[in-house]
Specification:
Elements: H1 12-22, H2 26-41, E1 46-50, E2 59-63, E3 67-73, E4 78-82, E5 105-109, H3 117-132
Antiparallel strand pairs: 1-2, 2-3, 3-4, 4-5
Helix pairs in contact: 1-2, 2-3
């Protein structure tokens, strides 16, 4: 992975672009695809960049009337954590991580895994509706 230079921008979308570019492997492609699906599900979604600290360059966050989900990247997984995931219906059973909590739920994506794109978009739309209620 290349040296982190993304902190120079003040625009969250540019920081997310830079993060995707830095991840020059399957994780960058996966995060990019997830980002596209989130924007397709809700064209009014707001991109944010949060939790910058010396040990972490920051995390992409998507919001609409409150937080929807984060897009974290680790060595072996791209993790989408939904802030109010426990309150969302998940008939496609996309949530496969952080299932024991009372509030959050996550989707861990590993290399080579495919996600049900329509189910993910439905989950995003449901989270937006929940935040708007």
């Amino acid at each position: 992975m290349k040296k982190k230079s993304s902190q120079k921008s003040e625009f969250p979308s540019e920081l997310i672009d830079a993060r995707i570019k830095e991840l020059d492997d399957w994780r960058g492609k996966t995060l990019s695809r997830i980002r596209t699906l989130i924007k397709q599900a809700d064209p009014d979604i707001v991109e944010e960049w949060k939790w910058v600290k010396p040990t972490n360059p920051g995390t992409p966050v998507w919001s609409h009337n409150g937080g929807i989900c984060t897009g974290e990247t680790y060595k072996n997984v791209v993790k989408l954590t939904f802030f109010k995931g426990a309150a969302l219906k998940d008939p496609a059973r996309l949530f496969n991580s952080s299932l024991e909590g009372n509030t959050r739920r996550a989707i861990d994506l590993h290399e080579g895994e495919k996600i049900d794109e329509e189910a993910l978009k439905a989950l995003i739309r449901e989270a937006v509706t929940l935040n708007s209620s």
